[in-house]
Amino acid sequence: MAYWLIKSEPDAFSWDEQVANDVEPWTGVRNHQAKKNLAGMKVGDRAFFYHSNVQRAIVGVVEIVREAYPDPTAESGNWVCVDVKTVGPMPSPVTLADIKQDEALTDLALVRQSRLSVCPVSVEHWQYLCRMGGWSGD
DNA sequence: GCCAACGTTGGC
DNA sequence: GCCAACGTTGGC
């Protein structure tokens, strides 16, 4: 199974809304590299839910429950989305500042390509970030 | 196909 | 609010 990180501006769609909705279609991605990442997601993969812009922190964990299908919010039909399900909140959110300070995380896609809204996370980084956030996991 | 202009994202 | 990074558009 693979690991990912998906970004959302809390003003547009926040973690609280994700928790309230439980399962949410992850739509609106309009970047080819991000699309490629979405298309590579499998059911059962997990992703960090990251708040960009105002909070800048990993605030929770979600699971992919439906693989890439045409994004209904795209008129062209050329974009895709996936469905993600709430797994749980990070006990202590991992901030971007924390991540940037940590030498083990300098090659994280989140840091290297700040504008990419859907990025892959290696197993090593996933476990490392989980430890930082106090995620006991399952 | 190159490149300048412009728009958007996201950190600070 | 500013700016850097990056994507897109359009003229040539």
Automatic annotation (TrEMBL):
UniProt xrefs under Gene3D superfamilies: ph1033 like domains
Origin superkingdom: Bacteria
Domain EVE intervals: 2-132
Name this polypeptide is given: EVE domain-containing protein
